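Recall the central idea of this unit: under ordinary conditions, the amino acid sequence of a chain determines the structure it adopts. In this exercise we apply that idea directly, starting from the sequence alone.
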Amino acid sequence: MKIATAAYPVSWCSTWEIYAQKQRDWVMSASGNGADLLVFPEYAAMELAALAGAEAAGDIQGSIDAVSARQPEMNKLFADLAEEFAMHILAPSAPVREAGKTVNRAGLFTPTGLAGFQDKQIMTRFERDEWNVSGGGPLKLFDTALGKIGVLICYDSEFPLLARALVEAGAEIILVPSCTEALEGYWRVRVGAMARALEGQCVTVMASLIGKEPRLYGVEDNSGMGGIFGPMDEGFPPTGVLAEGNLNKAGWTYASLDTKKIAHIREDGHVLGVKHWGEQVPRASDVTLEALR
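Accordingly, the structure predicted from this sequence is:
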């Protein structure tokens, strides 16, 4: 398959038609380059807040209300695009009001009209303290025509047990849509994504929201780039970097992947991290304190 992951620039979309055309243009561009799987970033759906006007878009709860209300339309848009262009698309994640709380949710849309949704599991301080966004659930593994795909939204990629649960369930690819303001945030998520690829002998795909839009609460300033990472083993680059974009430069980053390579290194790689994972448990459960002072 060919994977495309976005460095997607946030912008003010004053009408639904402008928003929908922007998404279509991005999907068409990737389709023209032969992509089978597209990954959009975390919270890129905050652009939809502009449709409710500047006052709502600039307000903590007003922006969430506005974006959540547009989710049925956004989901239909990406479902239609996935079917029209015959590709799998991880759409931009969005805050969604549900059962008295707000979750951060991303939808995976397929060419056959099927769709699955993954909620972010662990919230950052900003999400907890300012937005009052809660961890959703459950963690899911999507069995698709392209392979078994998991989604760890941004901060989730920094927690190895989440990725390990996906790998034990059979994940070959883990998608990591992200939204980070500062470079330190970008690198935290990137290092997390690369570490999860190493530990799980899988491929991780990181998408980034980029650019500035001071009128959109929560995504006023963003930095990052797209990246596709694998294990440092036979059949993969020695750096683990299958492809990476340019910092804060809008566009798709592409890499080709044969999932048979993942199966091969898990069975007969230079190292066998997935098989040997359990050897940590008895050694990590009993730490001996030895005084050296």
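The first strand starts at residue 2 and ends at 9.
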